[in-house]
C-alpha cells in the first residue's frame, strides 16, 4: 500500500499511456512528464506570493493581504488578472522583437532545469547521466535574457541595471557551481538521481545526507548564499532595488511581460532550491527510517517549502548590501571558501581509512579546523578592505 501511494503518479502515467497507440506513446510520455511541471510550479508560485506577503507582514508587524477572498487567499488571482489586463507599454525606440522575446528567454531555461530534478522516487522527467551539467548549462541562459531586457529597452537606466545584474549573476554562478563539485567528487556521478540514491542510507538512525558532514555543511551554506544572489533575493536584490537604480532591467516592462519576469525569478528560486535539496538534503529521502511510509514526493516539497520560508525570513530580516560589498563578498570570501572546501572534501574522503579509536572525531576536528581558520582569515580580509576617507565637497559654497 505504501509503495502504491508513493508511486501513484508513476502508475497513473503508465495507465494513461496504455490508452495511446504504440507509435504515439513516446510523444505522450513526454507530454505527461512536462504538463505536471508546467502546472505544479506556477501554482506553487501563486501560493508562495501570498505566503511571502503574509509572512513579511507578520515579521514587520503589519497586515498582509486580507481583503480579496477569505483571509486574502485570492490575492494572487487578483494580481494575475491585473497583470493580464494591464496595458503593455513598449518604448518607441525599443527593439520590439527583442523586448518581446526577453521574458520568454527567461522562462524557457527555467522549465528545462526542472526536467532533470528528481521530485520523488522514479519521478524525474529526464534521467541524464550529466543532469547536473545540463542544469547549470540551461541556467546560464538567464544572463542572456537579462541582457536582452536591458539592451532592447533603449533606456540607460535599464541597460545599467542589466549590466549590474549580469555582473552579480556571473560572480555568484562560479561559487554556485564550485560548491556542487564536492558532491560530484564524493558521489562520482553527475546524475541527480544517483546523487540522491547516494544519500539514502541510515547509520544509527541518522540519514546519510551530505549536509551532515563538515564539507557538506560548508558547501550547503555557500550554495545557499550563491543561490540567493542568483535568484536576486535579499540581501542581494540590488538589480531590482528601487533605492538603488529604480527597477533595474525591468524599468520598461509592464503588464504580462513584467509578470513573466516575476514568475521566472521565482521559478528560478524553486529550481535552485530543488538542486540544493538534491545535492545536500537527501532529495526525496526521509530524514528518519521510521518516516519512510510518507511518500517521497511529499518529502521533496516539504524541504522545498522549508527553504522558501528561509528566503522569506531573510527578506524580512536582512538589509540590502551595496554593490561594492556584494562583489567583494563574492570574490574575496565566497569563492575562496568554495575552493578550499574541495580539498576539505578530499581529506574527509581519504581519512575514511583511519581505524584508530576516535577516528571519526578526529576527521570532524580536522575538517572543521581548516574551515574555521579560513573563515576567520577571510572574514578579517573583508573588514580590512578599502577604506573610505572623509568626503570633501570641492564645489560647495
How would you describe this protein?
- This protein is mainly α.
- The chain has one domain (89-383).
- Helix content is 65%, strand content 1%.
- The protein contains 15 helices and two strands.
- The chain has a two-stranded antiparallel sheet with strand order 1-2.
- A hairpin with a 2-residue loop joins strand 1 (202-203) and strand 2 (206-207).
- The longest helix is centred in the first third of the chain and has 35 residues, at 25-59.
- It is globular, with a radius of gyration of 23 Å.
- The mean pLDDT is 89.
What is the compact description of this entry?
The protein is mainly alpha-helical and 397 residues long. The protein has helices at residues 2-6, 8-17, 25-59, 75-85, 96-114, 131-139, 141-152, 156-187, 192-197, 214-230, 242-245, 255-280, 296-315, 323-350, 359-383, and strands at 202-203, 206-207.
Q: How is the topology of this model organized?
A:
Blueprint: H1 2-6, H2 8-17, H3 25-59, H4 75-85, H5 96-114, H6 131-139, H7 141-152, H8 156-187, H9 192-197, E1 202-203, E2 206-207, H10 214-230, H11 242-245, H12 255-280, H13 296-315, H14 323-350, H15 359-383
Antiparallel strand pairs: 1-2
Helix pairs in contact: 3-13, 4-12, 5-6, 5-7, 5-12, 7-8, 8-10, 8-14, 10-12, 10-14, 12-13, 14-15
Strand content: under 5%
Sheet with the most strands, sense and barrel status:
2 strands, antiparallel
Number of helices: 15
Question: What is the gyration radius calculated from CA atoms?
Answer: 23 Å
Number of β-strand runs = 2
Strand order of the largest sheet: 1-2
Number of domains: 1
Mean pLDDT over all positions: 89
Shape: globular
- Name the structural class: mainly alpha
- The residue ranges in which pLDDT falls below 50 over 5 or more consecutive positions are none
| Percentage of residues assigned to helices | 55-70%
Q: Roughly how many Å apart are the termini?
A: 83 Å
User: What is the N-to-C order of secondary-structure elements (H for helix, E for strand)?
Assistant: HHHHHHHHHEEHHHHHH
Amino acid at each position: 500500500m505504501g509503495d502504491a501511494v508513493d508511486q501513484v503518479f508513476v502508475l497513473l502515467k503508465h495507465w494513461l499511456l496504455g490508452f495511446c497507440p504504440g507509435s504515439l506513446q513516446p510523444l505522450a510520455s513526454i507530454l505527461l512528464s512536462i504538463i505536471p511541471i508546467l502546472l505544479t510550479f506556477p501554482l506553487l508560485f501563486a501560493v508562495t506570493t501570498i505566503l511571502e506577503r503574509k509572512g513579511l507582514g507578520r515579521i514587520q508587524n503589519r497586515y498582509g493581504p486580507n481583503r480579496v477572498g477569505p483571509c486574502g487567499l485570492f490575492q494572487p488571482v487578483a494580481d494575475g488578472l491585473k497583470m493580464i489586463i494591464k496595458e503593455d507599454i513598449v518604448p518607441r525606440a525599443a527593439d520590439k522583437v527583442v523586448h518581446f522575446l526577453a521574458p520568454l528567454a527567461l522562462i524557457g531555461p527555467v522549465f528545462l532545469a526542472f526536467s532533470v530534478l528528481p521530485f520523488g522516487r522514479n519521478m524525474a522527467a529526464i534521467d541524464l547521466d550529466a543532469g547536473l551539467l545540463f542544469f547549470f548549462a540551461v541556467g546560464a541562459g538567464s544572463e542572456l535574457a537579462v541582457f536582452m531586457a536591458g539592451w532592447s529597452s533603449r533606456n540607460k537606466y535599464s541597460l545599467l541595471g542589466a549590466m549590474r545584474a549580469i555582473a552579480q549573476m556571473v560572480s555568484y554562478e562560479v561559487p554556485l557551481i564550485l560548491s556542487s563539485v564536492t558532491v560530484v567528487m564524493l558521489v562520482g556521478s553527475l546524475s541527480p538521481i544517483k546523487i540522491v540514491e547516494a544519500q539514502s542510507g541510515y547509520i544509527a538512525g541518522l540519514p546519510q545526507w551530505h549536509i551532515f558532514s563538515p564539507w557538506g555543511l560548508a558547501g550547503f551554506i555557500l550554495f545557499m548564499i550563491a543561490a540567493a544572489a542568483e535568484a536576486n533575493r535579499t540581501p542581494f536584490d540590488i538589480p531590482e532595488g528601487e533605492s538603488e537604480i529604480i527597477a533595474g532591467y525591468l524599468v520598461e516592462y509592464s503588464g504580462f511581460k513584467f509578470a513573466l519576469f516575476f514568475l521566472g525569478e521565482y521559478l528560478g528560486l524553486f529550481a535552485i532550491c530543488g538542486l540544493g535539496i538534491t545535492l545536500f538534503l537527501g532529495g526525496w529521502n526521509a530524514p528518519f527510517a521510521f518516516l519512510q511510509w510518507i511518500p517521497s514526493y511529499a518529502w521533496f516539497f516539504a524541504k522545498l517549502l522549508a527553504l522558501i520560508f528561509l528566503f522569506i525570513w531573510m527578506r524580512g530580516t536582512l538589509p540590502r548590501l551595496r554593490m561594492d560589498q556584494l562583489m567583494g563578498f563574492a570574490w574575496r570570501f565566497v569563492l575562496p571558501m568554495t575552493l578550499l572546501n574541495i580539498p576539505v572534501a578530499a581529506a574527509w574522503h581519504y581519512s575514511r581509512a583511519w581505524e584508530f579509536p576516535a577516528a571519526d572525531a578526529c576527521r570532524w576536528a580536522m575538517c572543521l579546523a581548516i574551515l574555521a581558520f579560513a573563515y576567520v582569515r577571510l572574514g578579517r580580509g573583508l573588514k580590512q578592505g578599502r577604506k573610505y576617507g572623509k568626503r570633501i565637497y570641492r564645489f560647495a559654497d
